[in-house]
Amino acid sequence: MTDTQLLDQILNTWRVHNRINLYLLEEIPKTGFDAVPYGSRGRNVAEQFSHIHRVRVGWLHFHTTGKRLKSDGEKKIPNRKQLLTAFKKSGQEVEAFLKKALEGNNKTKMFGGQAVRWMGYLISHESHHRGSIMLALKQNGMRLPEKVSVQGLWGKWMFGK
Hints:
Blueprint: H1 3-27, H2 45-65, H3 80-102, H4 115-139, H5 146-152, H6 155-159
């Protein structure tokens, strides 16, 4: 395998992951954005998506400036359209950063300086929240159909569809 082929595989892994987030965002019923896992005092579905996006942006800022991104104090949670736009943009920004880092033109702070390790962290973090989102929907009577929950979320990894 060439370096170019490996770079393509790594970047495609990020793209598939981001497409899964976008797909889930599109498939959630409108009322599902207010759902919270049973017994939780944590974030509702919309807040979890917003958190994922803010974490991406925060890490990108940290990697480029070496400083934490200060909160703007904004507590308003974006709607589906705003979240889709934000996820598309931050997904592209993460991909661009990864590409440059893997080509030796960007530095990943922390994570042992390893861009792929940082990508693994992002995928793990975001997958954790996808699980919480699916649980919140299920516990609030909005279980997504198998076409979405199994074929859509897992099938994209296995078959790219």
